[in-house]
Design brief:
alpha+beta; two-stranded antiparallel ribbon; 20 helices; 7 strands
Length: 388
């Protein structure tokens, strides 16, 4: 299906990235390479795929133009260095949490890079994401501060992060550009909302990260899938293929032992069927993830929504990035990533002033922002009309 992408540059980048798993090594050598290397690099960079593209091409012995190869190589090695620095810090923090008897588990990069050591070179990691239980948030925050971290409020009041968010951000300052280490302390995997708990069996299904460890846990592979899918739903760059690459790799590694019954039951009970369909569609369309027809059918996505999601993925994954375009695409995906239309509408009706201000580039606590937030529906409609 990725052959339906408009440009050869995107097809070439995706084939190189997939080759890191040993796929398509033969067809890569005969593939029609691009002449528009800037577009190739921009696509790879936007989707967080540069290390995978570089290592995949290297695995297949593909010769790239010297200047292109240099950009890919330098970016990959910088990513490798940062990965090791963040992983070392995560391991240190995990020992601190274990000693303090605070249950925690890594999510996203911190989890995947340890779970699958062969990914250490290819999966960029921008921060350390850890999940704790809601009742342990304050104790975990105090523990991070005792380890030299400072809470980053990012221009918002502390009450907003504590009451309306799903994570808090912490920075351990360092000397030099990029020397600091960011930690995101999560207690939820999605924005808080009324209704059933999204993953009620998450902690029960987790396992100790290592022998003789009790409080540092590791998610089941099925819950890792949900963590990736939910990240895409709330993430401003929902069309980015970084999480789709992770999803395809996860499914490839657990092809014979993945508990689809649990996944389908949890998606249905938590009203996450559309979110899961979107995530799986990206992995299947662009990285060849093998998902059996009964799984697609059991998700129960209507033909109309299925068509709209696939058309969005195939038509907009290659778009030229701009803040304006990204905002429009976020609104489009926002309506498609929920099982009904009431839930995204309720999110807009109840959106905190801080999130609204961030989306529209406003100062969060000025009288003007407060007024606009109060009249947000006509304001959003006006922006939608004038931006188009």
């Amino acid at each position: 299906m990725r052959d339906t992408l408009v440009s050869r540059e995107a097809r070439w980048a995706l084939q190189c990235a997939s080759a890191i798993w040993g796929q398509e090594a033969c067809c890569l050598a005969a593939c029609d390479k691009t002449e528009n290397w800037d577009r190739f690099l921009n696509f790879s960079h936007y989707h967080g795929l540069i290390p995978a593209v570089y290592l995949g091409a290297k695995r297949c012995g593909i010769e790239l133009p010297a200047e292109v190869n240099e950009v890919l190589r330098n970016t990959t090695y910088l990513s490798m260095v940062q990965n090791q620095r963040y992983l070392q810090e995560y391991k240190r923090l995990s020992e601190v949490f274990e000693a303090a008897s605070i249950s925690m588990m890594p999510i996203k990069g911190a989890d995947l890079l340890q779970r699958y050591s062969s990914q250490n070179q290819s999966r960029p990691m921008a921060d350390i994401d850890i999940l704790v239980q809601p009742q342990d948030v304050e104790a975990a925050a105090e523990l991070l501060c005792s380890q030299g971290y400072q809470e980053e409020l990012l221009g918002c009041r502390r009450e907003y992060w504590q009451q309306s968010g799903y994570h808090r951000s912490f920075l351990k300052p360092g000397i030099g550009v990029g020397a600091g280490i960011f930690v995101e302390l999560h207690w939820l995997l999605d924005n808080p909302r009324p209704g059933p708990v999204l993953l009620p069996e998450l902690w029960e299904r987790s396992a100790p990260q290592a022998e003789h460890v009790h409080h540092v846990r590791r998610m089941s592979p099925e819950d890792v899938l949900f963590a990736l899918a939910l990240h895409n739903r709330r993430f401003a760059f929902s069309l980015s293929l970084k999480m789709a690459f992770d999803t395809a790799d996860l499914l490839r590694r657990h092809e014979g032992d993945f508990d689809w019954d649990y996944v389908l039951k949890t998606a249905r009970n938590g009203k996450m069927r559309a979110t899961l369909f979107f995530c799986l569609s990206q992995a299947a369309l662009f990285f060849g993830a093998r998902i059996q027809d009964p799984i697609w059918k059991a998700l129960g996505i209507s033909m109309l929504r299925r068509s709209r999601i696939q058309n969005l993925l195939l038509g907009c994954t290659e778009y030229e990035y701009s803040a304006k375009k990204n905002k429009q695409l976020f609104l489009r995906t926002h309506w498609l990533l929920h099982d009904n239309y009431w839930e995204p509408l309720r999110y807009i009706l109840q959106i905190p002033q801080e999130q609204f201000a961030k989306y529209y580039g406003l100062e969060p606590y000025t009288p003007r922002t407060e007024c606009i937030h109060r009249w947000r529906l006509p304001y959003m409609l006006w922006n939608l009309i004038t931006e188009n």
